[in-house]
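Reposting from the mailing list since nobody answered there.

I have sequence plus structure tokens for a pair of proteins and want to know whether others read the tokens the same way I do. The first protein:
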Amino acid sequence: MSFKTKALFPLLLLVATSAWASSPWREGRHYSQGEIVRYQGQTYEARQGHKAERGANWNPEAAASLWAPVERRNNGRFGWQEGKYYSKGQIVNYQGRSYRVRQGHQSERGANWNPTAAPSLWEALDGNPNWR
């Protein structure tokens, strides 16, 4: 592999990952928990693994038990939201900092499980020398 190819590989990987991360929702496809899709201009995250059975009307807008709407921030990460399911390893922004989910959980409304109040659920990434 040439130097030029090696230098372009990370950029190509980023573009490919970005395209996958927000692919359009399609009927008949299997979705993994935490997978991100676009549907009618909105971004959604799969709450659980499932197959979007043809004719079952399991699209993100109609099947709230399978899909949660998410808000995308300017830097490409998702902002923390109350009432949303978070998968282990998922990265979010909260109050200007980045956090990674330690264990999958539903951020129950009123439970105060935000990243600063619930360190058992969230790992702060800013200032972590292993985080980029």
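The second protein, same order (residues first, tokens after):
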Amino acid sequence: MKCPHCRAKLKETKMTPWLLLLAVIIVPLLIYLGITIKSFLAGHFPVVEKVPTMIVFIAFCYPVYALYEAYNAVIIFNKGNLQLKKTQ
């Protein structure tokens, strides 16, 4: 993860309970959303049944995932404990 201002590499040293709770709730919802969209598309385009669900998710649900990741980043920057990564 990089600082949005100075682009320095950061690492998080403290995981917030809200971030963990959000991940526990959102990840299954994203999986369900991918499966639902695949089944909807398979009803209209039978060839979609043979496409892996992950590819369907990336093609149709990536904006939702990107918003989720952006929200996680805001929580980490506001509530987390960030430190600079040591360069080797």
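Reply #1 (J.P.):
I read it the same way you do. The chain has two helices and two strands.
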